[in-house]
Amino acid sequence: MTMRSLPNLLSAMRILCAAALPLITGDTRLWLCVYAVAGISDVLDGYVARRRHLESSMGALLDSGADTLFILASMASFLRIFPWPYWLTAWFCALAFIKLTTAGLGWYKYRTVAFIHTRMNKISGIVVFFTPPAILLSGSATWAVLPCLVASFASIEELCITIVSSSHSPNVPSLRAACRATSREDTQSPCTLRHRMQRTGQGVYSSDNAAGRDDVRHRHLAGTETMRETGSDKPDAGPERTHDDV
């Protein structure tokens, strides 16, 4: 095993833990241990990748996929240990719908699974991770209100980022940063720069002015050729007018 493959191996470990969680719902302590190992692997995954400069698009996709599988498996298995109230189930379904909408829109725009590591997504992951142990230890589902609120804000922000962004960037920190980047891209686009230079007259002319200059240049060259053929120093001005014509 090389250091470069360590982040991907940690993500694979999280996927294995996610697959094991639904199988051990009969033992709460074992379930919490496997759950904690998956959470620790998630923290180490990002830390090693940033510390050793091992970030890659494939690693980011694997990390996001492992996080999604872990959340779905842990929530589904947690339902067998501690039944949720109906309002919490409806809230979870609404969050899943927003996530699926974001994934579908990202695939339509970028032809890739558009997971975005925003600050709110990271905070949401931390809050959601500590929720199942808190509910099991307290015996109350009220602890799920805070992570649902944070996850709702993070999911809506991720959807808005996918809508306003012209290209996929998995490390956009917030919606404000995405709007700034999109505005900067629009400002620096060739069409915008050309239009701005046309308005200010900085070395770029409109197509009508260019056509007018070409027409003047063509007539000047035609007049020069006429003078060379007639041997005159002046362009042909037509027949001379006599005193009788006046």
Describe this structure in words.
- The structure is a single chain.
- With about 250 residues, this protein is mostly helical.
- About 70% of the residues lie in helices and about 0% in strands.
- It has nine helices and no strands.
- The longest helix has 25 residues, at about 55-80.
- The radius of gyration is 34 Å and the shape is globular.
Give short descriptive properties of this protein.
disordered C terminus, single chain, 9 helices, globular, mainly alpha, 72% helix, 246 residues
Fold blueprint:
Layout: H1 6-20, H2 28-51, H3 57-81, H4 86-110, H5 119-138, H6 145-164, H7 175-187, H8 190-200, H9 207-230
Quickly count the helices: 9
Mean pLDDT: 78
Strand content: under 5%
Low-confidence stretches: 203-209, 240-246
Strands, count: 0
Short structural summary:
The chain has helices spanning 6-20, 28-51, 57-81, 86-110, 119-138, 145-164, 175-187, 190-200, 207-230. With 246 residues, the chain is an all-alpha fold.
